[in-house]
Specification:
Blueprint: E1 6-10, H1 20-28, E2 33-38, H2 45-61, E3 66-69, H3 72-75, E4 82-85, H4 92-99, E5 104-108, H5 113-121, E6 126-129, H6 145-154, E7 159-162, H7 167-173, E8 179-182, H8 184-187, H9 192-202
Parallel strand pairs: 1-2, 1-8, 2-3, 3-4, 4-5, 5-6, 6-7, 7-8
Helix pairs in contact: 1-2, 7-9
């Protein structure tokens, strides 16, 4: 892992209006961002492509790779740098074959050490575990500190911590995580840039 964990920023799922690019730019300038995950909720292809284009331009203007969540077929077409698969290891092999060796392929594996190891073995560039913080959403199963500590000690593949992150959780996981993926933690606040700075300061 790196000496200091880096920020893997996720876009808001449903950004509003023409000000999205400016807002995203302000947030990305608030703290060093290593990668941007384009994770939009819309299933309207035209709107999705519009949002992807806007986010990609902001990211690439800062030499930050833009990684699209799940829509594998749009990655090459829209000039993106890779794909983030939210269904664990199942799509990793297909994504690697489709995108080639130079693209980024990442997999979210919940709290499953086994699925994370499988994803790495078949071609993932990173594995994400979460939720890393306490939450009552979803199944309630947490990717706890022991998982990240074990992974950082035993596995060379970079590991991302995400989900329900607080400054306290970030400080606790910082020695073991390579990246922190921040999304709702900042976009659900009145000051996303300030929220990102606060979380970055906890790393």
């Amino acid at each position: 892992m790196t000496d200091r964990a880096q920020i893997y920023l996720a876009t808001p799922p449903d950004p509003e209006g023409a000000g999205f690019s400016d807002t995203l730019a302000r947030v990305m300038d608030a703290a060093p961002v290593a990668a941007l995950r384009l994770d939009f909720a819309t299933r309207d292809e035209g709107r999705l492509i519009h949002l992807i284009d806007a986010a990609r331009e902001v990211a690439h203007a800062r030499d930050v790779p833009a990684i699209l969540a799940d829509h594998l077929g749009l990655v090459t077409r829209l000039g993106l740098d890779g794909v983030h698969l939210s269904d664990g290891s199942r799509g990793v092999r297909k994504a690697r074959e489709a995108l080639g060796k130079d693209a980024v392929v990442g997999a979210f594996c919940g709290a499953s050490r086994h699925d994370g190891m499988t994803a790495g073995e078949i071609g993932a560039d990173y594995v994400a575990f979460g939720p890393a913080g306490e939450t009552t959403l979803g199944s309630g199963e947490r990717a706890g500190p022991d998982l990240f500590a074990w992974w950082s000690e035993m596995i060379e593949l970079p590991v991302v911590a995400e989900g329900a992150l607080t400054p306290e959780t970030v400080r606790a996981l910082a020695p073991a995580a390579d990246f922190f993926a921040f999304g709702p933690e900042i976009w659900d606040t009145d000051d996303p840039a300030g929220a990102l700075r606060a979380l970055a300061n906890a790393i």
